[in-house]
Each structure stands twice: as structure tokens, then as C-alpha cells.
């Protein structure tokens, strides 16, 4: 994604996700962990989907994982973005029950099960994004 496109189209944070974006800006990949049952979850939500309690904590996970799936977009959805581009779905190594999405930085398309590592892309003082690249 070009820097120009990122300047125009920014993630919308909400009450639950704002703190996650702050941690990404600090270079940390995290998921929520339920204080009652230990279930990890992403994206951030106020309540546990398993036990329906509200208490939770952030848990840092290794900024690495495995490719679960991906798409190659040929549609000009975003102004300033050059097609085609690849968006991957990754299962973090430290929380494989969660999935995260991001742009792919590999020279070749990914494959299912491929090891990937997070790339923290600082856009400006307020925004850092996470892309993924091959770990091998
Ligand atoms: Zn729970």
C-alpha cells in the first residue's frame, strides 16, 4: 500500500481497539486474554465470547505466525493503491486460535502454513500498521 493511500485511509479505532493500536505503535503484538477463563481473542472486544465476563488483560505474543489464507486483490477499491496486492490471514504463533489480517510483503505469493513475521510499518506519529513477510 502506498504511503499516499495510507494517509487518506486510516483504521478506525473504537473503545475496544484503541489500546491495541497504541501497543502496535510501540512495536508490540498483543491479543486479549480473558481473566476468568483464559481464552485469547482478537480483535479486541469488551466481553469474552466464551464465558461472557468483562475482565481481561493484554497478552504480548511473538510477532510471528503462519499463513492461514490470503487473497490477491485486483479491484481498485482504494485510491492510490496499486493492484494487484496480497492480503494475508495469519494465525499468530503465540495465539493460533486468533487470526489477524495484513498486507503481504513477500516477493512470491504466500502458501498455506508458511511461516511469517510481522513488520511494523510506521506511517506517522499516530499510526503504525502491521504487514507480514516470509519468515524463512
Ligand atoms: Zn472467558
From TrEMBL:
Residues 58-121 form the ChsH2 C-terminal OB-fold domain. InterPro entries: ChsH2_C, ChsH2_Znr, NA-bd_OB-fold, Thioester_dehydratase-like. SUPFAM superfamilies: Nucleic acid-binding proteins. The keyword DNA-binding applies. Gene3D superfamilies: 6.10.30.10. It holds the Pfam family OB_ChsH2_C. The keyword DNA-binding applies. Keywords: DNA-binding. This is DNA-binding protein. It comes from Planobispora rosea. The lineage of its organism: Bacteria, Bacillati, Actinomycetota, Actinomycetes, Streptosporangiales.
Amino acid at each position: 500500500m502506498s504511503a499516499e493511500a495510507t494517509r487518506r485511509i486510516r483504521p478506525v479505532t473504537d473503545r475496544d481497539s484503541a489500546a491495541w493500536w497504541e501497543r502496535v505503535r510501540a512495536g508490540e503484538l498483543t491479543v486479549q486474554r480473558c481473566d476468568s477463563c483464559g481464552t485469547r481473542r482478537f480483535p479486541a472486544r469488551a466481553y469474552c465470547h466464551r464465558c461472557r465476563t468483562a475482565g481481561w488483560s493484554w497478552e504480548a505474543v511473538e510477532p510471528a505466525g503462519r499463513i492461514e489464507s490470503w487473497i490477491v486483490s485486483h479491484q481498485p477499491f482504494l485510491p492510490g493503491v496499486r493492484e494487484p496486492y496480497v492480503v494475508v490471514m495469519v494465525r499468530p504463533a503465540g495465539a493460533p486460535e486468533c487470526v489477524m489480517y495484513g498486507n503481504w510483503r513477500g516477493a512470491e505469493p504466500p502458501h498455506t502454513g508458511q511461516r511469517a513475521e510481522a513488520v511494523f510499518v510506521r506511517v506517522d506519529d499516530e499510526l503504525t500498521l502491521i504487514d507480514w513477510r516470509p519468515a524463512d
